[in-house]
Structure formats: structure tokens, C-alpha cells
Amino acid sequence: MRPRPRAQVLGADGAEAWAAAGLQKTEHARCPGCGGNEAFYHEVQTRSADEPATLFLRCVACAHQWREAP
Ligand SMILES: [Zn+2]
Fold first, then answer.
1. Is 50 among the catalytic positions?
2. CA of 57 to the centre of ligand 1 (A)
3. Whether the Cβ atoms of residue 40 and residue 68 lie closer than 8 Å to each other
4. What's the pTM?
């Protein structure tokens, strides 16, 4: 089976797609949409390697997506 491009996996709907992309799950998030604490997340290095990575989160309960800059 040919592996799908990572961007396509992340663009798919559903928490399962995110989990399949190897994302981690946290129970210490704070969803701006529903106030839920469970979210999938992944880190993206936006600038140089010296700077902290930006955290992208997706709520398990309502699928709201947001980011947290360090
Ligand atoms: Zn939510």
C-alpha cells in the first residue's frame, strides 16, 4: 500500500486520521470551543531550531483546532 502524503492525512476529518498520523494525545489541553481537556497534538518547528515549536491541537470532543505558541 502506498503511504499517503502527511499533509493529506492531517487534512482528513476525524480524530482517527490524526491518530493514524502518529499524533500524541494529551488530557491537559483546554479547548477554546467546548472547554474539553482531551486533544490530539503535534509540534511544528516554524522557525529556527533554536526556537520552541508551535503546538497544534485538535479537540477530541468537538474537533475544534487551534494552536498554542510557546
Ligand atoms: Zn472542544
1. yes
2. 10
3. no
4. 0.64
Query: Where would I find the beta strands (DSSP E) of the chain?
Result: 24-26, 39-44, 54-59, 65-68
In a domain, 50, yes or no: yes
38 is catalytic: no
Distance from residue 55's CA to the centre of ligand 1 (Å): 16
Catalytic position from the list 16, 43, 51, 68: 51
- Could you read off the pLDDT of 1-45 as tens digits, one per residue? 665 555 444 444 566 666 666 778 999 999 999 999 999 998 887
**Domain of 38: which CATH number?**
2.20.25.10
CA of 61 to the centre of ligand 1 (A): 5
How many helical (H) and strand (E) elements, i.e. helices and strands, does the chain have? 2, 4
